[in-house]
Amino acid sequence: MKRKNFITLCWISLATSLFFFFVFTEEKTLDNFMLTILISFMYSFLLGIGNGLINDFLNKKFPWSEATTKRAVISIISILIANFILVYFCNYMNFVVFQKSATTEEYFSGKYNYINWFTINIALLISAFLHARGFMEELKKTSKKEVVEQKLIAKSANAQFESLKNQLDPHFLFNSLNVLSSLIDENPKQAQKFTASMSKIYRYVLEQKDKELVTVEDELEFAKTYCDLLKTRFEDSVDFIFDVEKEDLRRFVVPLSLQLLLENCIKHNFATSAKPLFIRIFSENDTLCIENNLQVREQIKESSGIGLANIVQRYSLLTKRNVFIEKSEDYFKVKLPILSVKPNVVSDITDDKDKAYERAQKRVKEIKSFYGNLISYCIVIPFLIIINLITSPDNIWFFFPMLGWGIGVVAHGMSVFAIGKNWEERKIREILEKRNKQ
Question: CA 195 from chain center: how many Å?
Answer without folding.
Answer: 51
